[in-house]
């Protein structure tokens, strides 16, 4: 396994309602990469959220520059959940050299007969309506679904950052992205390496969503985390960092 002197940049896209700090420990365990964020926690609309992601990645692509041999430094995007859907959208436009998708999906909402791949749209619409009345209750209820019973008993839920880092407008915008964005149609045209990391017991983005991605991504690789819910990296950062390192450097040999 070759570890290049300049491994490139990982641009992280967090999940719905979550602050960027949720990735702090994982970043610290990958010091050979530069790290950055696409921050959409104050986006006022779906259109603004999509514009922020695209503008930021364009700017990072330019600023990443070249190494001492004149070769362009690679740009990877690490996306969790909502961030994974946005990452796929960016990859389809040719902005990135590799994707790390954590508990991601190509389409968050699915027909009732495909509930092994996503949520019914009505659930997301109900969340949007409820946010306008009691946003804390909506975020708290969402967090209850993030972990398995065993993960809750282990205290993993206590590791999450506090509720309240997003504006109400950005929470609604994120849910609108989850309702309306659909990346399935262009998965076969995403030819960069893609590492999929997914919990086998994910209640937010069901495991079938990961299988759907794997079946259609030309260079996809799936790592399944057993007895794991929707946050496959939390509390497992050391092992996940090792998997990311082996996957990416394996492509450089």
Can you describe what's shown?
This is Pimeloyl-[acyl-carrier protein] methyl ester esterase. InterPro entries: AB_hydrolase_1 (IPR000073), AB_hydrolase_fold (IPR029058). Pfam families: Abhydrolase_6. β3, α3 and β4 form a beta-alpha-beta unit. With 253 residues, this protein is α/β, with parallel strands linked by helices. It has one domain: Alpha/Beta hydrolase fold, catalytic domain (Rossmann fold). Strands 2-1-3-4-5-6 form a 6-stranded parallel β-sheet, with helices on both faces. The longest helix is centred in the N-terminal third of the chain and has 19 residues.
Secondary-structure-based class equals alpha/beta
Uncertain residue ranges: 1-5
Q: Into which percentage range does the β-strand content fall?
A: 5-15%
Shape: globular
Indicate the CATH architecture.
Answer: 3-Layer(aba) Sandwich
How much helicity do the residues have? 25-40%
What is the assigned CATH homologous superfamily? Alpha/Beta hydrolase fold, catalytic domain
User: How many domain regions?
Assistant: 1
Please write the CATH class name.
Alpha Beta
As for the CATH topology, it is Rossmann fold
Average pLDDT taken over every residue: 93
What Rg, in angstroms, do the CA atoms define?
17 Å
Report the order of strands and helices. EHEHEHEHHHHEHEH
Work out the helix count: 9
Main sheet: strands, sense, barrel:
6 strands, parallel
Order of adjacent strands in the largest pleated sheet: 2-1-3-4-5-6
Number of strands: 6
Q: What is the straight-line distance between the termini?
A: 7 Å
